[in-house]
Design goal:
Layout (H helix, E strand, L loop, with lengths): L2 E4 L3 E7 L16 E7 L1 H11 L4 E4 L1 E3 L2 H13 L7 E3 L6 E6 L5 E4 L21 E7 L7 H14 L2 E6 L20 E2 L3 H8 L4 H10 L4 E5 L5 E5 L3 E4 L12 H14 L4 H15 L12 H10 L7
Parallel strand pairs: 1-4, 1-9, 2-7, 5-6, 9-10, 10-11, 11-12
Antiparallel strand pairs: 2-3, 7-8, 12-13, 13-14
């Protein structure tokens, strides 16, 4: 495997066309569409990477139930390795209702994060991987520095690049708990809101400087329609995204991370990695679902050739 993706998984119920500002008036509320899919940070990354031609392994936890089997089969169809999915008889597979607004923005209805399935990844599943991606820091099983270090410290010592994304749940754990793990992270992918919340800083430069000061090698902040911002000790980049329609932003950040990792593996420059990641995210948000839009690397190449980037701000 070139990339091992560890973290969150769930089954998604995708509801499009629901007016979130209006209470139910009748017994039945009609919406534009309801679809079933799979999601979760690690799932989205692994499936998108596999479709981009990267050998990807998914390490996650699901219940030994129908939803877990459905998730397993959908991931397998993408070509990702599912041999290290953990099955539990004590917990049910996570199910999330995704309510999608007309502008593509979404809200989630889900059980408390503390109720999610807990499993313990074997660090040896990452042996030989070029990239190890902790897709869901601050969610089970990565709820403290020890749980993260157990995976990424040996991976880093073996020569793997370590990437990480985050889901902010301050009620479950504090970001300060993770400071000892940050020096082992080569690329950190928070979105702008998450980054502000974690660091209690407002400007992108201040956020990045804070994280670099705690040991992160490269900070890549996803800034939505503005694209992304990358900073390390030697580089500072603002890379705009593409002028393209938005249907559903579910999984946009995970697809961005997958695109960045794909370009990183291909040996491209930081600016090109950002540009490619923006393109993958743009293709992803043009379809309903967290991981349905991206089909192949050729599709992304064609998209880049056919669409212009927004002007840098």
């Amino acid at each position: 495997m070139e990339v091992v993706c560890l973290g969150l998984s769930c089954v998604d119920v995708l509801v499009r066309g629901f007016d979130r500002g209006t209470a139910f008036r009748e017994e039945i509320c009609e919406v534009e569409s309801i679809k079933l899919g799979v999601g979760g940070d690690a799932v989205n990354q692994a499936m998108t990477l596999s479709r981009l031609g990267v050998g990807a392994k998914l390490v996650c936890g699901v219940g030994n139930d129908d939803a877990g089997l459905y998730l397993r089969d959908r991931v397998a169809e993408s070509g990702a390795d599912i041999s290290d999915i953990h099955y539990s008889t004590d917990y049910a597979t996570g199910i999330t209702v995704v309510v999608i607004a007309p502008d593509g923005q979404r809200n989630f209805i889900a059980p408390p994060a503390a109720n999610r399935l807990m499993f313990e990844p074997d660090p040896d599943v990452c042996a030989g991987a070029r990239v190890v991606s902790i897709a869901s820091i601050m969610l089970r099983p990565f709820i403290n520095a020890d749980s993260v270090l157990r995976v990424i410290k040996p991976a880093s010592e073996r020569g793997s690049l370590v990437c990480a994304d985050v889901v902010v749940h301050k009620g479950l754990c504090s970001f300060e708990d993770f400071y000892p793990a940050l020096p082992y992270i080569d690329y950190f992918f928070p979105n702008e809101d998450e980054a502000k919340s974690l660091t209690e800083r407002e400007s992108l430069d201040d956020i990045a400087d804070f994280l670099i000061g705690h040991g992160v090698q490269n900070v890549v902040i996803k800034t939505g329609r503005d694209g992304c911002f990358l900073k390390s000790r030697n580089i500072r980049l603002t890379v705009p995204t593409f002028d393209s329609p938005v249907v559903d932003t579910t999984g946009a950040g995970d697809n961005f991370a997958a695109g960045f990792i794909k370009s990183l593996i291909d040996g491209h420059s930081p600016a090109d990695c950002c540009r490619y990641a923006n393109a993958v995210a743009s293709v992803a948000v043009a379809s309903v679902g967290a991981n349905t839009g991206v089909k192949s690397s050729a599709q992304i190449d064609d998209f880049i050739a056919a669409h212009r980037q927004f002007e840098a701000k």
